[in-house]
Every structure is written in C-alpha cells, then in structure tokens.
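I had to read the description of the data format several times before I understood it. The format is easy to grasp once an entry is in front of the reader. For illustration, here is how one protein appears when written out as sequence plus structure tokens:
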Amino acid sequence: MKRILSLILALMMMFVLASCAEEALKAEEKPAAEEKVAEDAPETPEMPGKPEIPEAAFDLWVDDEDPVLDPEVTESEDGTMTYKISTKSYSHWYINEEGGYDYLAENKIKTGDDWYYYDVEFSTADTAFIVMDPWCDWADDFLNEYFGAITEKTTLPLMQAAAERGHKVIILTNDPAKTKYNTKITPGLQELVDAGKAELLYHTDWPQDKFIAKLDEEGITKLIYTGYASNMCVLTRDLGISKMIGKGKQLYFIPECSGAMEHADTWETQEVHKATTFIIGQVQAKLIDFEDIYNVLK
C-alpha cells in the first residue's frame, strides 16, 4: 500500500513539474510573440475626412454688414494705449439701445433674434490676451499641424503686436513636470515668453481664485480669449470662458485665433468650431473680429 501511495505522489509531482515547465516556456515565448504582433501591426489608419492643413485665417464669422468702427486710438503720457473695437453677441431677446430688455408685460420680454453690436473701449492697462494651450506636442501630429497653422497665421502675429503695444499676454499650458505631452507651446509664442513679452502660467499652479486675485492686482478687467480647442479647453478649463463668467471680468473671444476638436468629417468645414463660436457669442463672451483688432495693434 505504501508503495502505491509513493507511486501516486511521484506521478503527481511529475505532473506539477511538467505543468510549471510548460508555463515557464509560455512566459519566455510571450514577449517574442508580442514583438511579432507589434512588427506586423498595420499603421494607424487616416481619420476619415482629414483635410489638408488650412493655409489662411478663417473668416467664417465675419458679416459684410458688421460695422467698421473708427478705433479712436489715443496714447497717454505714460504710454497707455486706448482704442475702440466693435464687438458682437447674439440674443434671442431684443436688446435696446441702453443694452437692456424691453418688457411687454410683467413676465413677457420682446424678442428679436439677431446679432447685437457693442462699441467697447480697450486699453493696454486694463486688457489682457489669453492664449489657451497653444501646444506643439499634441499626442497627434495632425493636431500639431492643424492648430499650429492657425497659430502661425493669426494668433502669433496678434500676440506679437499686442505685446509690442504694451498689452499683457498670458499663455496657459500644462506643467511639463507633471505630464509627458500637451505642454510645449509653439516656438513663436515661446520666443515671446523668453523675451519677457508674454507670461507662461501652468494650470495646476493657478487655481481660479488665485488667478483672479492676480488680475485684480494688475488692474485687468477685460480678457480676450484665443487658443485651443474652442469646444474644450478654451470653454471649460478652470480659467476658461465658461468658468470665468460672473467673476468680475468682461470676456471676449476671437474665433479666427482658435479652432475646435472637430468630428472626423468636419475638419475642413469647421462646423464644430462655428457652432461653438455661436454658443460662446450667444451667452458667454462677446466676439471680436481678428482683422478689426489686429489692424489697430499692428
């Protein structure tokens, strides 16, 4: 009986050892198999509807009937530049000349779906330009080229002109010590930072209350937003347009200095950016035409 039990135990040990050896062999072969799959894997397919990179600024929001305002540029003895720009926003409700509603009854307001125009005075002392996340190290080369083309055509020239005139230019991005991509800003904007003509701030270092306190201390009451993407970071970051509503600052947006994260088939038509621009201009910030403000500052 003992001999039988010993034989059974021996067979069991042989089975266990054989199983372990088989698993070890599989483990050794696995990396090679994974390498082969990686080598044989097809390249990432092109996204449907990818267009060629846009070559010109986008004039999708410029109406031929938009008023052209005399900027009435003045410069004080201390070098402060003051000028006027026509801005616009869309409203379902009729806006009267005083900028208010006309009440038809106690609980009824006159409607008038249309764009409404506002002549706004800006100053190098009270107005800052915000460039949201103008990265050149997106995790997708297409985005680097697509948004980079917009930056080179409109955003960079405007920021260069604004900085030369004495405007505060604030560039927001991620901290490279905390993430491996979506941190590096485009070379032209980096040159402005290196020359001390623009300020680079990391999102994680500037919670909203700290940022607002900084603006208050510097006398900034107006923020003009640019950057990427209009339907994401520009709109929803803690220092973005939506989150800054009601914080004591007048908000403006230049759609030609921005772009959206589009659908696969709308990169060329920019339908998402156009819809986002309309939403921003309807309830969140007044729109400024790129040419209007650039022609004043250049």
